[in-house]
Amino acid sequence: MDLAMSFQRAKLVLTGLELGLFRALAEEPAGEADLRDRLALHPRGTTHFLRALTELGLLELVGGRYRASPAARQYLVPGQEGYLGGFLHAADAVMYPAWGRLAEGLRTGEAQAATFSGSAMFEQLYADDDKRDDFVGMAESSSRPLIPALAETFDWSSVKTVLELGGCRGNTVAGLVRAHPHLSATVLDLPPLRPVFDEHMARLGTAGAVSFQEGDFFTGPLPEADVVMIGHCLVDWTDDQRKTVIRNAHSAVRPGGAFLIWDPVLVPGEESYLRNLLRSLNLQLMTPHGAGYRLEDCRKWLQDSGFADVSHRSLGHDVTIVVARKDN
Ligand SMILES: C[S@@+](CC[C@H](N)C(=O)[O-])C[C@H]1O[C@@H](n2cnc3c(N)ncnc32)[C@H](O)[C@@H]1O
Fold first, then answer.
1. What span, in angstroms and rounded, lies between the C-alpha atoms of 113 and 54?
2. What is the CATH T-level fold of the domain 7-75, as seen in this structure?
3. Residue ranges per domain, the chain?
4. Model-level pTM?
5. What CA–CA distance (Å, rounded) separates 203 from 59?
6. Using alpha carbons only, how large is the chain's radius of gyration in Å?
7. CB of 264 closer than 6 A to ligand 1?
8. Cα of 36 to ligand 1 centre, how many Å?
9. Would the CB of 85 count as within 6 Å of ligand 1?
10. Which residues form the O-methyltransferase dimerisation domain (predicted)?
């Protein structure tokens, strides 16, 4: 029963976010009556809603007043370093309804997300500023925790130039350049992201170190770089499309350089396997073409494209980085 009814717990967390509960309590702890006033909640249900969130470890009740627990403050309060709300907002508004149509998705193979229709996913997302900002927030909630490991698990000391394919508004590469200021970086992404890239780099103070190139990683040719990397992108596409991107990347990596891929790759037997199978199903519901892929398939695509030495390691957070070297 716990397994079958686990959507109830999920909805407690997502509804707390939707109501602004964690933000309100991080600003000021409050008793129930005060909270009901501040969030415009009806008495029926509220007591048990707050008590259940307390039992889940997201609220603490001290001296008759609720406050956000340390975990809620870290992950569920806007403005905090670990804030996951960008992702969880999309989880609530888009993924939750789409998972309600899982059977339909399995019967038809069609995406079930209400944010777009047909196969032109990014064009539709970027035609609407709110949808674009939600998508960017969601992407960064997933990639932000990986930046420290990305900066440390690869030896950047002899790398001069790095190109991130599908680098969005540059958040990941900006973190990398801050950790390794000798790097000169380029983000290649679709034209509608240029204005949000410019704004974000100005805010982070990395405008001089990271440039934006409008482009399409399927059509190439891509700008050359010592290291080309792509994260949380190949999962959005079919195997044939992935092979095309990998071939284009091979042409762009300078001899002696490397191509880095990070994704929630499917590795049977690893602790991440079930969660990444669920992510794969999520991609099938959310995108026209996406699905998880297996490490051994990725390794083969890289070798078939001419990369010499392929290795992998974990970046944490269920994400595997695959490192492929190009011969001198
Ligand atoms: C899921 S997001 C990942 C963003 C970023 N790498 C991260 O992990 O935060 C996929 C990115 O691929 C970009 N993209 C999609 N199709 C593309 C194409 N044909 N050429 C270049 N970028 C593309 C999107 O605009 C988006 O920024």
1. 32
2. Arc Repressor Mutant, subunit A (1.10.10)
3. 7-75, 145-325
4. 0.90
5. 33
6. 21
7. no
8. 41
9. no
10. 1-77
